[in-house]
Specification:
Elements (H helix, E strand, L loop, with lengths): L4 H6 L2 H4 L6 H8 L5 H7 L9 E6 L9 E5 L2 E7 L5 E5 L20 E2 L5 E3 L5 E4 L18 E2 L1 E4 L2 E5 L8 H4 L10 E9 L3 H5 L6 H5 L4 H4 L3 H8 L7 E5 L3 E5 L11 H4 L9 E3 L5 E3 L4 H12 L17 E3 L3 E5 L4 E10 L2 E10 L4 H31 L15 H13 L1 H4 L4
Antiparallel strand pairs: 1-10, 2-3, 3-4, 4-8, 5-6, 6-7, 9-10, 11-19, 12-13, 13-16, 14-15, 16-17, 17-18, 18-19
Helix pairs in contact: 3-13, 4-13
The structure holds FE2/S2 (inorganic) cluster (FES) and fe (ii) ion.
The site of FE2/S2 (inorganic) cluster (FES) has 10 residues, from loops.
Length: about 425
């Protein structure tokens, strides 16, 4: 084999580096007709409204005290209705605007406003105005009704619809494990002090190895997975919109969520690279090879095997899904992260960890391992690093895209092209 050392040496390190596309090429690649920044500017600040969102656990809604959550810029109040279901109403009392979230349940299945005692049922009907007495003429009037939001309780999680249109079928917005009996779905939630848009765009770009380099998840990766993490976002990336709701990911270098595929498990094992940066006077990154050798050791001790993905439903496998789902298929369990917009500056990050245990013992094991280990390693240790990276991100300053931004840009395009809020513009 002849090696052309002459021409190699005559090139600078930058010339030898793989050609990364420019930001404009990225945009051309995702097929956008306008610049990514204009896509960004079209994304609604308070989130897409025409979708089902997880709000809280049914167990958090008291029998005597309502529970409330701020979502999509508004406070929603949850109480137990007369039909036994969890009901949701807008916070502002239709009388003079007092906060129903500060109210009480004096009578089963109702909520009473803390100011003059207007008392509503789960349909929003005003049953009584306690302060006015039994002859109050406002009771039963259409104009006295509280604004109600439709709810669904699935696997103990309350989902709410805050859209202006009729609710879409829940199956379109909520993953399939919520509708099957044999699944074990566990929940954990936190808040990030940043808007929902950067919270969502924190996926499948080149941040993974950099941001998460000291997470236990990355430190425990075998070499061939770490190699792919190092290249994440920089290789060719193909995306596919499925049913107008999911942005499926198909990238040779993607590792999380695709790590279970046979192709990656069969990939050639090689020590993950340490890059040299000429403009940093030849400095190396990672600075030492300790993490990289650790990955080779793990590769040797515990080589990854080709395992089938857990989720076979194409729409809900690894990737992104409207209005704010990110999914990673770990073969043994499905990990989903849902970004629920709170307001312009805050997002609620809800984690769902799903298994399909085949026995009662395995079910108990699934609960124990989630609470003792997975929740910490995935949701606190690993995802907490994402939260730190995007906290306070300036989403309105000019951007200069790199080739590794292709997937988040495809997501922006997906939102403004397929988001129901754009398909069903409100008058
Ligand atoms: S403001 Fe709610 S009862 Fe008066
Ligand atoms: Fe991340």
């Amino acid at each position: 084999m002849t090696v052309d050392t002459q021409s190699r040496e005559s090139k600078t390190a930058e010339e030898r580096a793989p050609a990364f596309p420019t930001g404009d090429e990225v945009i051309a690649r995702v097929g956008a007709t306008s610049r990514a920044q204009s896509l960004r500017d079209q994304m609604p600040v308070q989130g897409l409204r025409e979708y089902w969102y997880p709000a809280l656990l049914a167990s958090e809604v008291g029998r005597r005290k309502p529970a409330s959550r701020k979502m999509l810029g508004e406070i929603v109040v949850f109480f137990r209705g007369r039909n036994g279901n969890i009901a949701a109403v807008a916070d502002a009392c239709p009388h003079r605007g007092a906060a129903l979230s500060r109210g009480d349940t004096h009578f089963d299945g109702t909520i009473s406003c803390p100011y003059h005692g207007w008392t509503f049922d789960e349909t929003g009907e005003l049953l009584a105005a306690l302060g006015d007495g039994p002859d109050a003429r406002v009771a039963g009037l259409k104009s006295s009704r509280a604004r109600v939001y439709p709810t669904h309780v699935l696997k103990g999680v309350v989902f709410v619809w805050m859209g202006a249109a009729e609710p879409s079928p829940a199956e379109e917005d909520i993953p399939p494990e919520f509708f099957t009996e044999d699944s074990l779905v566990m929940w954990s939630a936190t808040e990030w002090p940043t808007n929902w848009r950067p919270s969502m765009e924190n996926y499948m770009d080149s941040h993974v190895f950099y941001v998460h380099r000291n997470s236990l998840r990355i430190l425990g990766l075998p070499a061939r997975f770490l190699s792919s993490a190092l290249k994440l976002g920089t290789g060719k990336i193909n995306t596919k919109v499925i049913n107008g709701r999911a942005l499926a990911l198909d990238a040779p270098n993607a590792f999380m969520g695709l790590a279970t595929t046979a192709s990656l498990a069969k990939a050639k094992v090689q020590a993950p690279p340490q890059h040299v940066f000429q403009r940093l006077d030849g400095a190396k990154w990672p600075a030492t090879r300790s993490r990289l050798w650790l990955s080779m050791l793990i590769e040797y001790l515990n080589p990854p095997k080709a395992k089938p993905p857990l989720e076979t439903n194409e729409e809900w496998k690894a990737g992104m899904h409207l209005p704010g789902w990110i999914s990673t298929d770990n073969s043994a369990f499905m990990y989903r992260r849902m970004v629920v917009p709170i307001d312009a500056e805050h997002s609620r990050i809800v984690y769902f960890h799903t298994r399909y245990p085949k026995s009662a013992l395995k079910r108990i094991w699934g609960v124990v391992i989630f609470h003792l280990w997975r929740n910490w390693s995935y949701n606190y240790n690993f995802s907490g690093q994402d939260g730190h990276a995007v906290e306070g991100l300036y989403y309105d300053t000019p951007e200069n895209l790199s080739g590794s931004d292709a997937y988040p840009m495809a997501w922006r395009r997906m939102v403004v092209t397929w988001g129901r809020d754009f398909l069903r513009p409100r008058s």
